[in-house]
Specification:
alpha/beta; six-stranded mixed beta sheet; 26% strand; seven-stranded mixed beta sheet; globular; Purple Acid Phosphatase, chain A, domain 2
Length: 259
């Protein structure tokens, strides 16, 4: 099975790029499933029904999220209607709306389970992601398992990769919006990359207008962190997973550009 995993979709620029470029890329590379982190899709923070619909129509099959998931009240209705295709971090408190695991079944392929986790280092409090992952693996069906580790610290993401090596098919990191160059297949067959990057404007500071961010950093004065517009790219990894062993055969970084 060929799976494309895309980093955080940031605002209208990210949405629009995927709307024009994702389907042709899927066809060209014979991609079976697309997973994208969508927690920044509405003006750089949060997700709502309208933006979700646009991404699904663009060719995204499963949407993961992170610490901005509850920034838009509409997410509650979206969870009720589309809870099998849009996730929140699994290790949020048990009373949180939504779910952190879903299983997608495609004809001719084994089941694909997607697990959405969030880190705790330099992040708001959450339950233990390692224990959450361990517990989830006792309940999901045999098949391909994909884990989005939405976290700030590279050490915590790397640790999760090693923790799950041989237990899942792929662990990828999101949240920092900068693609890392450490894609690899770990010794027990799990594909890993510390951060996918983002689908958004790279002439920016992690998707926001650099002039406003610089004003905030250098003066401590208020500046609106508007989404930037230039050098729009969609970054992620393309995976080839063995349908029989559920192990990764390859992991390759990909970049789709607006031009």
């Amino acid at each position: 099975m060929r799976i494309l995993c895309l980093g955080d979709v940031v605002g209208p620029p990210g949405r629009e790029l995927l709307g024009t470029h994702l389907k042709p890329f899927r066809e060209e590379r014979a991609i079976d499933l697309v997973i994208a982190n969508v927690e920044n899709v509405v003006d750089g923070s949060g997700v709502n029904t309208a933006s979700y619909r646009v991404l699904r129509a663009s060719g995204v099959d499963v949407c993961t999220t992170g610490d901005h998931v509850f920034k838009r009240a509409d997410i509650l209705k979206l969870f009720e209607r589309e809870g099998d295709r849009v996730l929140r971090p699994l290790n949020y408190p048990a009373g949180a709306a939504g779910r952190g695991v879903t299983t997608v079944r495609l004809e001719g392929h084994p089941p694909v389970t997607v697990i959405n986790l969030i880190g705790r280092v330099f992040m708001d409090p959450a339950d233990d992601p390692f224990e959450a992952a361990r517990a989830a693996l006792t309940t999901v069906p045999p098949g391909i398992i994909v884990v989005d580790m939405h976290a700030e610290a590279t050490s915590e993401k790397r640790a999760m990769g090693w923790w799950l090596d041989g237990k899942v098919s792929v662990v990828f990191g999101t949240h920092t919006h900068v693609p890392t160059a450490d894609e690899e297949i770990l010794p027990q067959g799990t594909a890993y990359v510390t951060d996918l990057g983002m689908c958004g404007p790279y002439k920016s500071v992690i998707g926001r207008r650099s002039d406003n961010v610089l004003k905030s950093f250098t003066t401590k004065m208020y500046a609106p962190f508007d989404v930037a517009t230039d050098d729009v790219r969609a970054c992620g990894v393309l995976l080839d997973i063995d349908d029989r062993t559920f192990r990764a055969r390859s992991i390759v970084r990909v970049t789709l550009r607006k031009e």
